[in-house]
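RECORD CONTENTS
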Amino acid sequence: MRTSIPLLSLLLAGSLAAPAPAATAAPALTGLDVSSSNRRAPVPGLHDWSKAGYRGNGVLPRNNDVNPSASCQITAAELASQFTVRPNDAADDTAGLQAAIDTIRTSCSPSASYSKLSLITLPAGELKVSKELHVDADHLIIRGAGATATKIVYTPDATTRYDSLTQDGSDWDEDGMAFGQGKGGWLWPGRGLFRVQSRGVHTSYASDHSRAPENRKDLFEGTVNVHWKAGAKVSAAAKAGDRTIRVASVANIKAGSLVNVRAANSVEFYEQQFATGTPHPLLNMHMRQQIFTVTSVSGTTVTLDKPLEFDVPVNSTSDGSPAIDGTVYDSKVSPLVDPVLGVGFENFTFTQAMPGLNQADSVNNYGNMSPADQMHGIVFKWAANSWVRGIRAEMTGSHPIVTEEAKNLQIVDNVLDGSWNKGKGGNGYFRGSRVWDSLYAGNTSRNLRHFTFQWSASGNVVVGNDFDSDLNLHGGWERNNLFELNTVRVPYAHRSGNCRANCGEEGGGGPDDSNWFPIWWGAGKKAVKWSGATGPRNVFFNNDMTKQLSTGGAFSPFYADRQRVYQFGWNGSAYKHLDVSGTAIADWAKNEQRDYTGGHGVDVSKSDSARSLFLRTVPPAFTAGASTTIPVSTAAELKSALANAQPGDVVSLAPGTYRGSFVTSRPGTPSNPITLTGPSTAVLINDGPSGTAPPCPVPTAGWDSGYGLWLYNAPYWTIKGITVAESKKGIILDNSHHVTIDGVTVRTTDEEGVHFRRSSADGVIKNSTITDAGVVTKAYGEGVYIGSANSNWKCHGNSGGVDRSDRVSVLGNRIGPNVSAEHIDVKEGTQGGLISGNTFAGTGISGANSADSWVDVKGFDYRIENNTGTFASPGTFKNGYETHNPSTTPSFANGCGNVWRGNKSDLGGVGEYGVYVSSTSKCKGNPNVVHASNTVTRAKKGLTNVPVTP
């Protein structure tokens, strides 16, 4: 067995390695295009990850996937009026929020779908919750007003906190928490703030459930899904690669349903993991599991949507093994009788309040500070095709996001920071357990114990995240997972021995004196305490991994060859436990820096010249030497970065408030755009204007425009994730073409929110939220403003005397409420844009300066399609969409040639037409077209004032 010194491409050589410069953490790659159109074909010889994520294609719902029916959209105002959920008061909002979820579950979920989602909109401000919220309403979005705007404070009450602890008081005692036939382990992984799980009770437990006290009823909820009740025994062995499996009974198994195929443990299987010969007992359980979709049922043969990844014996002895503990254990195919589907959480913060504890004491403390309060944030159990995006978790009781039997989840662009419990029993993880075909992308994790896959997790992709903890393969035959393009920067303080109370690990046992390195691998003799060894073919590729080996020391690379494909637990053709000179390691601790290539458990026979095994294209920011990441945490640093950015640079904002005048005139290039990125908690505020303004807006010394962010002569930029607020104007683009604004929040602006101006053509604003525009000057409070009025061409007409902000796309945004002028104002002289998939909430339109519609089109040849608009008092409202035909010099077909298709309009009983065309005579040669696919409700006059085109 070689030492690590000759191996230049795998693991660092610890104290023998040459000192390396201190590492600078790269930001998470938020806003990655993870859609199926940007995925590589499966790489020969590797697992097929092309179906990972939401619905197998990675395209999260847009606003036009929301049910237009007002009865299936509970607004913040309706939460207050109908459910008494009001922010910033002393009242407990638990009952009201649960009632709102239950209303959707009863009234909307039965007829809902992935393209007809219900929506609960949380208000800005702080909400109080004291009990677990049960989110068992299929196809429901719970959306806040923004991670910096909406905050849920969770303070578990006496019936929610665990009243059964281990004898030493260090951890939750699942087995001691019992009632009737039930015990606390049935709640695994434990209670949370949100629980995406069925509450269905099996008939065998109905009596126990009805008699149980409040703090024991949830033991029995979801029992309709448990494998010992719903599972069908396997009647004939199946092999890895098979797509059919025979069972004793197909009751509850139907084509299109989800089933969990569960293979019984056997002594032979434990021996394969080198997990025998230890004092830890072998367990009758199903370590190997996976959820599949049933494609057909014929007799007692079930056909699955893809091949099995493991052998499935009939039972624990059918492979010739002796019985474990003298009991034969059956393999099963267990239908998910009542899975929860299509639930999404978006754009808010949650935290678990612990008034008696100090957050500072939790940093690098890998113990349990309050074992009775080990509540998670979001729990997914028996769930599929669901997502979490734009969430900030601050100091949860244990895991901020955790899974247990879930499939095709998408966890993207979240910030998870801190846990009160990170010690004994396995707490404080970003945890994927029994999760399959899911996608974790663009997340930032701080002050947690691990990022883990465990308990047969498979087919998952972890891409573009920023962690200060390890990538932990925690044991339980997890396999075929891909880790790539992640920044993993592990400080010396991140280690098991750094613990002040209730220290230890999952499965019991105290801390050791080892360090946690960027990878942790579950060795059989160690991991069998709680599960078993890590399984085959977990792949690491093109990650930026560093480890600090002493306080204040340098961060050294964990492995350096970014093009090498590292397959852990593999010898090139079969599973291989990691070994040293042929002897299986008993524990990863103290063996992290060894060389396991050459047949010792890590296969490095493959390399790849691309930057990603999963995606076709990724931002240039992650290409070594191709760009510079500029970390920013102060307003002064941001001003400097904007003033000096070069093509390909990534300006990365840390969470925080940035006050000042932020302007750039630095151009990117088509192949190397400049990126300004950060979480929604990075908030730009300009308290201006001040100084003497020039005749036309141009960056001028001594003058502060008051703009939140101003790009002037700065084409080819991408602005992602940040918030711009409390400024005169929000984001202003002047002569800045090919700029993409993605996932930003703009709120509380004196005038317009986002303005494509001075021929800022070919721009995109997508997936963004704009509210509360025009709070000072209502006549100028547009949400998105494209071009300029011809009266302003003297300043902004830089293309033949015209503001040619052409071909701007406005896609999938949420605009309103309290946008005082038009949600989108399309000015004369502009052409060829696309307005698609947006949601307009018209409450607060002022009527000032003729602002009385969602969209006013004075440009030409625009496509307006698949948008959803609503209006409710207060406000002034006349029509959903309007055209106007101003005369200009030079002359254009202003207000003509525009097409409306597939828009849904609810005019609130106030508006006249869904689409009002001001003139047909002026557009005879290029008429406006309103298709019959548009719909309108509660209109005084109807869909449109012109003939409808099929």
